DNA sequence: GTGACGTATAAGTCTGACTTTTTGTTCCCG
DNA sequence: CGGGAACAAAAAGTCAGACTTATACGTCAC
């Protein structure tokens, strides 16, 4: 699924990144490269490369004579897939899951509408195939199989929209759906209504009915948001 | 506006990054760290740090015995502000501008709706102030002054939505608006209708009218999209 | 043709010395 | 006693060179 710490600097990142996003080092905290290098038992070169990556994610800022300072959370590149993964693995997963789902509410309906206009015949076929796969796995606690088709479904819609910004949210949606399945209380079978909606969305896109695809997708994703609110109470 | 190549590795990035996003090195191209270090007249350590950053943006992939290979564009982290800036500076600015504006069409109306519910009194005040600033600069070729208030307006709405994913798109919107003002043919004064809409959106948010704020914002951003289509013909 | 083996290659890692920038202190003068 | 200039220390930044490791590719035997 993800990239397991490639190279030494990758392993350092896999440890330091989640620590920062988890708020283990409050904003303004100062880290020194040499100290970190010692702590992780790597050379300074490796540590510097790791810091550079964190810097490119706007998680930290490196300044001479002062050190590596942790930036406030509102400056982080929260669209970076790695940052998203780190945050979803952390303590405030619920909040993270919610803000991502709200993003889905905004994006996916529009993407579905565009998909209805731009989807190729092949994409339509894959879409209905995924929908059928969801139906097939909707009963009998086959959550993993359901998840696979669900992820594929939304990924295809986002790709079929023809907009690269939408397409690149496929990974985000995948993370959200996986997080919901694995870390929420989801022992039951998925909501039958949601399954039906997916089938209908596939039909609408196939039929080129943009407004219907948009509206049905909105139902799906708003439903997901409500489901989230039920499980973790939050204003 | 942005961060001008801080440190040697930053200057290398400022040169290599745009070259890659511009498609100067087609996907699959192989670069060697040593050669790059020579070309840019920096040490390997510096070059390696630069490559690490490019790697974290998914622009390239570094593999042993192979070299640094350029990844296909559909794998790039296109939400990275730096990548966005590089691409907007490149040749396919029109396409980039369009896909970003489509993203705005999806996000900003929803954000405005949420802002109507969550905006603080102070944010409402700032919002109307910005709207007035736009009105004041809407005539007499005061495009720069208009731009400043326009950017501030949309940034406040996104922040006031209370969703961090929306809030972080403030920079993207700023880049889009700046790009439109500076690099499109925009010698005329801004569309009066758009100005009016901004004022009305500020009113709606102040009044807590979510659906109205959403709908008016949709008019603004769809208008921006149409304006884009007129200037650069594209299917 | 297929498999195992060896080799060349380019990234990866480490070390140590040196440079540069910047902060904070000290000290002198007004 | 206050302010500014000179100074010193600290941390990142840069560089060069040696060494290690993984791996693609060619070779050779079967």
Automatic annotation (TrEMBL), chains A, B:
Keyword Manganese: no
HTH gntR-type domain location: 6-73
Keyword Transcription regulation: yes
Keywords: DNA-binding, Transcription, Transcription regulation
Name of the protein: FadR family transcriptional regulator
């Amino acid at each position: 699924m993800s990239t397991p710490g490639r190279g030494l600097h990758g392993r350092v990142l896999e440890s330091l990144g989640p620590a920062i996003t988890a708020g283990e080092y409050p904003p303004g905290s100062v880290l020194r490269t040499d100290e970190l290098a010692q702590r992780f038992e790597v050379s300074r070169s490796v540590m510097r490369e790791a810091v550079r990556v964190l810097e490119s994610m706007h998680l930290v800022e490196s300044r001479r004579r002062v050190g590596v300072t942790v930036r406030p959370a509102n400056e982080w590149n929260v669209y970076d897939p790695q940052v998203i993964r780190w945050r979803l693995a952390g303590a405030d997963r619920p909040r993270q899951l919610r803000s991502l789902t709200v993003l889905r509410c905004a994006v996916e309906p529009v993407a579905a509408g565009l998909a209805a206009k731009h989807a190729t015949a092949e994409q339509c076929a894959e879409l209905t195939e995924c929908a059928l796969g969801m139906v097939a796995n909707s009963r009998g606690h086959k959550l993993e199989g359901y998840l696979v088709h669900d992820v594929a479904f939304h990924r295809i819609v986002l790709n079929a929209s023809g907009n690269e910004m939408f397409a690149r949210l496929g990974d985000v949606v995948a993370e959200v759906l996986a997080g919901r399945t694995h870390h929420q209380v989801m022992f039951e079978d998925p909501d039958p209504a949601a399954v039906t909606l997916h089938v209908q969305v596939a039909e609408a896109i196939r039929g080129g009915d943009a407004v219907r695809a948009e509206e049905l997708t909105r139902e799906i994703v708003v439903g997901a948001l409500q489901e989230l609110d039920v499980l973790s109470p939050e204003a």
